[in-house]
Amino acid sequence: MLTTNSINKTKFCAGISDISDSYSGFIIDEWGVLHNGEKLFDGVIECLTELKDRQKQVIILSNSGKRADQNSERLRSLGLADDLYNDIITSGEITWQGLNNQSEGYFKNIGKKCILINKKDDLSIVKDLSVEVVDDPKVASFLLIAGTDAPNKTIEDYEPLLKQCARYNLKAICANPDSLGILGAINIFGPGTLAMRYKDFGGIVEYIGKPHSMIFQHCVKMLQERDVYPGQTVVIGDAMAHDILGGVLVNIDTCLIKRGIHSSVFKACENPAEVDRSLNILVRQYNNVRPNYLVENFEWGKALPDRKHKKRGPKKKSEISF
Description:
The two termini are about 30 Å apart. It is globular and about 60 Å long. The model is unreliable at about 1-5 and about 305-320 (pLDDT under 50). It is built from 10 helices and 14 strands. Helices cover about 30% and strands about 20% of the residues.
């Protein structure tokens, strides 16, 4: 049983400014922390600007089934400039690289024909790959789960296809392990839920993304190249199952955002004692994994001085290795 941090108290913070001096590296979740899929949250740009001006290394880490460049484009469309973070890593990017190389780990010789479950008509995760999307599980080499059409489709809508893939013993790659997602003001089921359902039918699944250590180890490697090490790094996210557990598994400090997946847990809390009780219930639900910090939103939390926005140099492109 995981008990890391279970005997320690979580520090309640007014904002990211309370922890900024303690860390040089920030691994930040995207959905639920920076935006809700439709707009950036208030305070995000100001907070990232403060981290940038303090020369912090910022990696945005997302369980998105889309490639990194697509996520950067989406952030730009929401108003978040490229120069406010150093890198963006997505589970979709790592999946694409693995399918392109097919040389190591679960990807080794996985095959060239796949059943793809993704948002309608979205083939981006296999674009420019020598992988063919097919409709018949009988001729497929593997199943690739990258997205869903929730809320327009239900889990039951996918079950006939999942059962058929399981009958043909197709190995599955889940390029987005999120079981829940945020779309505007509602929660929707994520690709991780379909992957779990596939396992219920006897299928074998490999998850690419948080909380699994490979994607965090890639972040660690990138930060180490800039002389930033795990003890100088904090993971900031809104999901206990992905962000907080993932940070604990690689021995990196964590900060939980109250707004997001677990917002209903804290919604009725009127004072710190009630917040503490609600957090303890949440911690017990997740095998006693406890965040080091708890903060309301991803915002700076102190009065901000006037700063002129300075341009950052081009991002360092890092090859993903397996």
